[in-house]
Amino acid sequence: MFFCQSLTIPPNTPLGATVRGSLRICEGVVTHVWIRWYWGSGNLCGVRALYNEFQFWPLSIGTWFPSMPEMLDFEEGIPVETEPFTLVLDGYNLDDTYPHTVWVAVNVRRLTVSENLRQLLQDLETR
Questions:
Q1: Sorting pLDDT into bands at 50, 70 and 90, what band is 119?
Q2: How far apart are CA 34 and CA 72, in angstroms?
Q3: Could you report the per-residue pLDDT of 3-45, keeping only the tens digit for each?
Q4: 122 Cβ contact list (under 8 Å, min separation 6)
Q5: pLDDT given for residue 41 in this prediction
Q6: pLDDT of residue 82
Q7: How far apart are CA 2 and CA 33, in angstroms?
Q8: Which residues pair with 2 in a beta bridge?
Q9: Residue-number span of the structural domain to which 109 is assigned
Q10: What ranges in 22-83 are assigned the alpha helix state H?
């Protein structure tokens, strides 16, 4: 299943006062991610995604995907198993004049019934 959301970041939005938006997804495994900055952001912005307050992308804590003219496009394999099924998009913008918008999309593969059953059994064994 494909999910996408845009986040517009106002000018003068520093790292200490970032803007947040949300991307609702479903339970499953995130298999692919696309991140695209709209034209003209001049490498003055950054974005990251969090899930349950844990930094999902980029995985290195405290780092950001910088704004750039090329689309970031990468495969992934991170499970999303607990509610809320929402990714938090967190962005900054050091441009003193213009707002900038980033588009984030993910593909989520829903688990099959047998995969859900296997996960349930594993959870019961660890209790």
A1: low
A2: 6
A3: 999 999 999 999 999 999 999 999 999 999 999 998 777 789 9
A4: none
A5: 73
A6: 86
A7: 10
A8: 107
A9: 2-125
A10: none
Burial of 111 (0-12, 13-18, 19+ CB in 10 A): middle
Residues 6+ apart with CB under 8 A from 115: none
| Mean pLDDT, rounded, for 111-115 | 65
Strands of the sheet with 72-80, listed across from one edge: 2-9, 100-109, 28-37, 72-80
Residue 29's region, left for phi above 0, alpha for psi from -120 to 50, else beta, is: beta
Spell 46-73 as b/e; 16+ CB within 10 A means b. Answer: bbbbbbeeebbbbeeeeebbebeeeebe
Q: Into how many domains does the chain fold?
A: 1
Give 27's contacts (C-beta < 8 A, 6+ positions apart): 80, 81, 85, 110, 111
Question: For residue 24, what is the DSSP state?
Answer: E
Q: Please give the structure tokens belonging to residue 10.
A: 């106002």
Domain at 120, CATH number: 2.60.120
Which of 122, 113, 100, 118 lies closest to 9, judged by CA?
100
